Amino acid sequence: MKAYKSKDDLLIGKTILITGAGDGIGKSLAIESAKLGATVILLGKTLSKLESVYDSIEALNKAQASILPLDLQGATEQHYIDLADTIKREYGHLDALVHNASQLGILGPFEQIPQDMWDNVMQVNVNAPFLLTKSLLPLLQQAPHASIIFTTSGVGNKGRAYWGAYCVSKFATEGMMQLLADEYENSTLRFNAINPGATRTAMRASAYPAEDKDALKTAFEILPSYLYLLGDDSIHVQGQRINAQ
Ligand code: NAP
After folding, report:
1. Pocket test for ligand 1, best of 29, 45, 167, 171 (most atoms within 8 A of CB)
2. Partner of 144 at 20 to 30 A CA spacing, among 19, 104, 113, 119?
3. What is the pLDDT of residues 121-159, one digit of tens each?
4. What is the pTM of this model?
């Protein structure tokens, strides 16, 4: 899958919602998906970043993207219900959902984890994907084949000292993906998770401020596994944890 080569028309006719689409991996995935024909719904926190991605997609002269500004930190279940209604009204269906946005929180010893930081990380990394998936399931079920992609991490299936709330949230992410894959085994929905591996983004820089950034893969370079899971070549792939590198 790391070497997956997508056809130029892989995502034509597909509507894809990406969270955290304003920066890092989400931004690169949004632009690349649009290049391959997808209509991309850009969800994120900072409007100016989303507008910049929107403009990059406009410049491609492909399907028009749309912007959904939402701070996952403060969003309530009603926000997700309203969001699902909006997508249903505007597009009528949804072919893919990429849970990409995450908070790293503060790395450090377990006994010093502040509860508010723990709660914030869980809210964005676990509660938001739970509520977003729940609200969009009826719409995703209307697509011929829908792909739901969760984003895990190297600390999502093996605990690592000092990775605190982020580590626990990624275990929960993988648990949610596995539970859904099992529950919807005999359906048109598929649920999988990608571990991007070390990638040159703002989040990586805040976790490893001293490392040589030029030695890391760029967000564009790690996209083949995402594109594989978004396109119809993966319609029988269910419940997998895929390393993008
Ligand atoms: P990033 O550059 O920090 O981008 C994260 C994106 O999520 C940003 O667009 C950010 O929006 C958005 N976001 C954060 N909090 C949000 C909130 N409360 N509401 C809405 N959007 C929010 O991170 P990245 O490195 O691309 O990470 C993408 C995914 O890959 C994450 O799930 C991360 O855990 C995972 N991952 C990354 C690496 C790596 O090496 N980079 C390795 C393993 C896993 P703003 O910019 O507006 O804040």
Report:
1. 45
2. 19
3. 999 999 999 999 999 999 999 999 999 999 999 999 999
4. 0.98
Whether ligand 1 lies within 6 angstroms of the CB of 73 is answered as yes
| Beta carbon of 20 within 6 Å of any ligand 1 atom | yes
- Reported CATH class of domain 15-243: alpha beta
Query: What are the residue ranges spanned by the domains of the chain?
Result: 15-243
16: CA distance to ligand 1 center in Å?
17
Which of 54, 80, 166, 226 is catalytic? The answer is 166
- Tokens describing residue 140: 């995703």
